[in-house]
Specification:
Radius of gyration: 52 Å
Structural class: alpha+beta
Mean pLDDT: 77
Largest sheet: 5 strands, antiparallel
Number of helices: 10
Order of helices and strands: HHHEEHEEEHHHEHEEHEEHEEEE
Distance between the termini: 27 Å
């Protein structure tokens, strides 16, 4: 697996997803609760400060200066501004073009919107920023007393400018606490996610390891059942399935072992009568030409079927050696081109086969098993394919390749996966069928018996680009005798 795929698998893993889900839930909840609490507390603080400032200004105006006559003088405005200013606020008094301000260096803190509301005879307030600091502006008109005891607006506008820095500090503290609460909640959510992921993933990891061991053939694998939740039900189901599989596989192995032992025993028992029958058929072969009509044909038929039966028994014995792990290699340094040529010559095929056998290709392998493989492949091409049949030899520093091809109808795609199955007859894909169906299986086993380290021989079937079947044998040039290792 590449590093990027490994990182992608980790990111998409269940642990990361659980942590992210818990973290997202914690952050969302914290943001919602902290934001709601923050804004609500902020509004309450500002509203309380605003109400207190309005009441304070109203009380001061009531106690200090009810205006008795108009127009006021500049001195009246100055005095009024000084009386309404203190440590926490300063006042601005305006009458038409006259203006007085007490206790501050700010030149014009008033806004047109606020002044318009005050001129309309209302008590108005507005939050503004003065020199980067929050402040509250409150404005109203002074009332003019009438002789009948009533009052009317005098046109004298009084504004109080109060700093909101203490309230802003309180709000900032609330924000800091909200952030701290959010951070702590996130940490807590991640810790809870890790704990939950550990509790959930431990049974999942145990199940994964157990499934891997079961897939590798350890049928005794079982899980420890903890608790009574859904994961415990999964573990219980796995154990039941593994137990059933172990019993069934054990029974199948026993039946397979009995069948192999039966085939091996029968094959060995048949060798003795077959030896006697072969001796008789040798005599019949010599006398067959002198026997009249049906007797001669019967003698030749018996001889041929005896040879077929002998070949079948020999093939079954060879298969039993592979199954029991007793098949061994007799290794030698072999000139592959010379060995393939000898195989074709012994069987009388040299003139019928097109060969491309470059000399000097030497490999360490079992010459008898190479002979069996090549003979089976070429014979299969003659029986089930069509001439011309070709044999090509190739080599590189690590491998030797022998390719056998014909110009017949080729192999049906549905047949290709079963070509090397035992007792699989070629007539499911060919027009004619001969033999026991063990030749290609034996050739495949002989190829795989050649190995060197991680390199292992192989035999592959396919179809050529111009038609016909193509069998490709690949053997390592240096073969180590590993006995009957499969």
């Amino acid at each position: 697996m590449t590093p990027w795929r490994r990182v992608g698998a980790w990111v998409s893993g269940l642990r990361v997803r659980l942590v992210l889900a818990f973290a997202l839930l914690g952050v969302t909840t914290t943001v919602a609760v902290a934001s709601g609490s923050y804004f609500q507390a902020r509004n309450v603080i500002l509203q309380q400060a605003q109400d207190a400032a309005v009441m304070s200004l109203t009380d001061q105006l009531t106690k200090l200066y009810p205006i008795a006559q108009l127009p006021p003088t500049q001195d009246d405005l100055e005095l009024l501004a000084q009386r309404l200013s203190d440590r926490e606020s300063f006042a601005v008094v305006v009458y038409r073009d006259m203006r007085a301000q007490g206790g501050s260096e700010f030149t014009d803190p008033l806004t047109p919107e606020l002044r318009q509301k005050v001129r309309d005879g209302r008590i108005a307030w507005q939050r503004v920023a003065l020199a980067g600091q929050p402040a509250l502006l409150i404005g109203t008109q002074l009332a003019l007393d009438r002789p009948d005891g009533t009052s009317r607006p005098s046109g004298v506008e009084v504004y109080s400018v109060r700093s909101l820095v203490p309230e802003q500090q309180s709000i900032d503290q609330l924000a800091t606490r909200a952030w701290l609460t959010g951070g702590l909640s996130l940490v807590l959510a991640v810790l809870l996610a890790l704990l939950s992921a550990r509790g959930v993933l431990r049974p999942v990891r145990d199940l994964s390891r157990a499934a891997r061991r079961l897939g590798e053939g350890d049928l005794s694998t079982r899980l420890t059942i903890r608790g009574a939740d859904e994961l415990a039900d999964v573990a219980r189901t796995f154990n039941d399935t593994a137990g059933t599989l172990e019993r069934q596989v054990g029974e199948l192995r026993r039946l397979e072992s009995d069948a192999r032992r039966f085939v091996a025993d029968v094959s060995h028992e048949l060798r003795t009568p077959l030896a006697a029958m072969t001796a008789v058929t040798d005599v019949l072969d010599e006398e067959a030409e002198h026997l009249p009509g049906d007797a001669g044909r019967a003698a030749r038929l018996v001889s041929q079927e005896t040879q077929n039966l002998t070949q079948l028994v020999n093939d079954l014995i060879e298969i039993s050696r592979f199954d029991s792990g007793t098949a061994r290699l007799a290794l030698d340094d072999v000139d592959v081109a010379a060995a393939v040529t000898a195989t074709l010559r012994i069987r009388g095929w040299l003139d019928r086969v097109r060969t491309e056998l470059p000399p000097g290709v030497v490999a360490r392998l079992d010459p008898r098993r190479l002979d069996v493989i090549v003979a089976n492949l070429v014979g299969n091409a003659f029986r089930h394919g069509a001439e011309p049949v070709s044999v090509r030899l190739g080599a590189d520093p690590d491998w030797v390749t022998v390719e056998v091809a014909d110009r017949g109808p080729g192999l049906d795609p549905e047949v290709l996966p079963h070509v090397f199955d035992r007792l699989y007859k070629a007539d499911t894909a060919r027009t004619r069928s001969e033999g026991s169906g063990l030749g290609l299986a034996i050739s495949w086993e002989n190829a795989r018996l050649h190995r060197h380290g991680e390199r292992r021989g192989s035999l592959v079937a396919g179809n050529g680009t111009h038609g016909g079947a193509v069998f490709t044998l690949r053997l390592p040039r240096e073969t180590a005798d590993t006995g009957g290792a499969r």
